[in-house]
Specification:
By secondary structure, the chain is an all-alpha fold. Helix 1 packs antiparallel against helix 6, helix 3 runs antiparallel to helix 4 and helix 4 runs parallel beside helix 7. The chain is globular, with a radius of gyration of 22 Å. The N and C termini lie far apart (86 Å).
């Protein structure tokens, strides 16, 4: 004799989406404001370009980029509080990682921060995911897979280059 347990036939959403309310709108506004402060506060005279606190903090040797990324994690925290899908959080984290890694290179990293604007990208991702309950995440998965794949390719190329240098150096020493 078999016993069957009645099951709920309604499909439950994978991610709980909070209803639009004042708190949600307030958190989105905070993310937008923080992104503006970090990426586009000051207009560069004579151009249509804007810079923010991120590239300016990047000019401080050692701790500037770390401090800028630490401030950027506030947007990530807001996204977590809004219970956004994990793939969106992963994409936002990758944006911060890219900005922090390239930003660590003096001058070039600061110019990259002006162009890349990781905080603005993250605020846009937060806003888009927060207002759409049925957000498609295929592009997020492709982005994350592309970043990981690109990182692996760059790493393998770097290893191959180092091995090539070692072989050439060895040949120079042994044959010389």
């Amino acid at each position: 004799m078999e016993f069957s347990v009645p099951q709920d036939t309604e499909s439950k959403p994978r991610v709980k989406v909070l209803p639009r309310d004042e708190t949600r709108e307030h958190l989105i506004t905070i993310a937008d404001m923080l992104a503006k402060v970090m990426d586009t506060t000051i207009r560069i005279p004579g151009t249509s370009w804007y810079i923010g606190l991120d590239p300016l903090l990047g000019l401080i040797p050692g701790i500037g980029d770390a401090l800028a990324n630490l401030i950027g994690t506030i947007i990530l925290g807001l996204a977590t509080r809004l219970q956004l899908p994990r793939i969106v959080l992963a994409r936002m984290s990758l944006n911060l990682l890219i900005n922090g890694t390239v930003g660590a290179v003096p001058i070039v990293g600061d110019l990259f921060s002006i162009w890349f604007r990781s905080h603005t990208r993250n605020a846009a991702l937060l806003r888009e995911a927060a207002v759409k309950s049925d957000r498609e995440t295929h592009t997020d998965w492709f982005y994350v897979a592309g970043i990981i794949g690109g990182t692996v390719v760059v790493l393998l190329l770097a290893i191959a280059f180092v091995m090539w240098l070692v072989v050439k150096f060895w040949a120079l020493i042994a044959g010389g």
